[in-house]
């Protein structure tokens, strides 16, 4: 497709997996500082942009190869020169964005929204659904790319935009929320998803209450130590006298 072959094609394929591992690991340190909705919505929109760029460049500069590129009958369009470099660059950028946003957040969100009594079952359903759709996409892409070529990227870009719209309207923010608060978010009396924010008033109140209690306990211990020390000194003086 981008006129790569041999070891170069193999290395290019390996680079994308390396990028995925590196950037998904980096996101581990920032995921709770940014919030779930922000990463889901803007991640989907950024991925849509990458899909549209790749599809547009391939559609404008691709050359039809009916017999297949390098003998692969599923790839019937070739891009060379600077357009090919653009396709490769935005394909890598797509992997980076996915590793920073939807890849980790989807699993975190799936774990947070289930109540404790059904969380194990819910995560099992999420894992099964993920792999079933991976299997289905693996079967869908070869014939789809053979028949609609660059239009496949435009289709995936449209799906990403629709996903961002769904995230905006139906996915409340769960970052920093207690289990009880998350249950309220998904109840009939819960707020609109786009009105929810990162953090938890209840969680902050509980943390402050614990900190205050600990501070009082430390102060009380300090006072008791001072009293005990004064009593000991007084007893020593009385014994000397």
From TrEMBL:
The keyword Membrane applies. The keyword Nucleus does not apply. It is a multi-pass membrane protein. Pfam families: Sugar_tr. It comes from Didymella rabiei (Chickpea ascochyta blight fungus). One of its GO terms (cellular component) is membrane. It comes from the Eukaryota. GO terms for molecular function: carbohydrate:proton symporter activity. SUPFAM superfamilies: MFS general substrate transporter (SSF103473). This is Substrate-specific transmembrane transporter. Belongs to the major facilitator superfamily. Sugar transporter (TC 2.A.1.1) family. InterPro entries: MFS_dom, MFS_sugar_transport-like, MFS_Sugar_Transporters, MFS_trans_sf, Sugar_transporter_CS. It is found in: Membrane. Keywords: Membrane, Transmembrane, Transmembrane helix. The lineage of its organism: Eukaryota, Fungi, Dikarya, Ascomycota, Pezizomycotina.
């Amino acid at each position: 497709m981008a006129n790569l072959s041999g070891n170069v094609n193999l290395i290019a394929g390996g680079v994308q997996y390396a990028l995925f591992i590196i950037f998904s690991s980096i996101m581990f340190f920032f995921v709770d500082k940014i919030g779930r909705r922000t990463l889901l919505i803007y991640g989907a929109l950024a991925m849509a942009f990458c899909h549209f760029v790749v599809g547009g460049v391939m559609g404008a500069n691709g050359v039809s190869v009916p017999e297949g590129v390098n003998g692969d009958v599923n790839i019937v369009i070739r891009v060379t020169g600077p357009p090919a470099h653009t396709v490769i660059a935005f394909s890598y950028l797509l992997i980076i964005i996915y590793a920073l946003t939807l890849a980790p957040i989807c699993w975190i969100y799936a774990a947070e929204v289930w109540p404790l009594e059904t969380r194990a079952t819910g995560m099992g359903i999420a894992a099964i659904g993920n792999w079933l759709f991976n299997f289905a996409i693996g079967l869908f892409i070869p014939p789809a790319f053979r028949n609609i070529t660059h239009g496949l990227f435009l289709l995936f870009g449209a799906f990403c935009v629709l996903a961002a719209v769904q995230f905006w309207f139906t996915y409340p923010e769960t970052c920093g929320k207690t289990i009880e608060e998350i249950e309220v978010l998904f109840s009939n009396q819960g707020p609109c998803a786009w009105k929810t924010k990162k953090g938890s008033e209840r969680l902050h109140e509980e943390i402050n209450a614990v900190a205050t209690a600990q501070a009082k306990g430390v102060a009380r211990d300090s006072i008791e130590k001072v009293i005990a020390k004064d009593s000991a000194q007084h007893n020593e003086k009385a014994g000397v006298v």
